[in-house]
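Run folding on both entries below.
>entry_1
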Amino acid sequence: MDQHKTMIIPYVPEYAEQTVKMWRDSKSEAIGQKETHSFEDHVHFLNCILPKECQIEIALVDGKVVGMIAYNESEVSQLYIHKDYQGRGIGRRFLERAQKQSSGRLTLYTFEINKKARRFYEKHGFNIIGRGHENEENLPDILFEWEAE
């Protein structure tokens, strides 16, 4: 498909508003719930808190943010793709980058209600290792794990 137009770059704050808007839209689409935090708090989290724990990358198509991932050597903290750009290999490319940088094992959480994400992670070698609902949304979630072969 038009994957050649998709650039993955390290996140920089000039993309903060676009990234947060895409993130919030994608998340509410996936779980049917509006974001609990204000837009400003979300930008602060993206610019000031998340970078302390994670490497953040964004996907751009024609200069527009269409996806983001935040990860470190043991965990994928955030992974969102705009609904109009899902199924184009962007999420797979993000996961491959995280897997390459990992210690050989990655964990991540997704909401139980997000069946698309669950299928996506299972298709890419992640297995369910736990369930719970310790999250701000108070929704049941699933803990997935991937291990290098």
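>entry_2
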Amino acid sequence: MNWTPITFEELKIEISNGEHKMDQNLLDFWNKIKTVPKKWSEAEYGDEGNGFWVVAKFKNLVVYYNDIEEGFNISEFKYEGEIQEYGAEQDELNFAIYKLVELKNYLFLS
């Protein structure tokens, strides 16, 4: 694979771009679940880049940036620091957070 992992500075730009596209309700939810970005491992494709940047946690779900696919994804986790499954979405942050809100509403999660 000929790819270079995203830097923390580049990730901050991606996050900022997504925040600017959120309406107030989405931004309020984002502000409740966001976390300081931290690399989490992922067994299938995460080794080469030392994991993927997790940017938010809600219940047993994380939002992370897949820098191979260049987009944000949602995955379950069982153990802190380990993304359970690889996602290949190429979503901007605002769309990934919208998907999470829809999932939350569908499953009636608080």
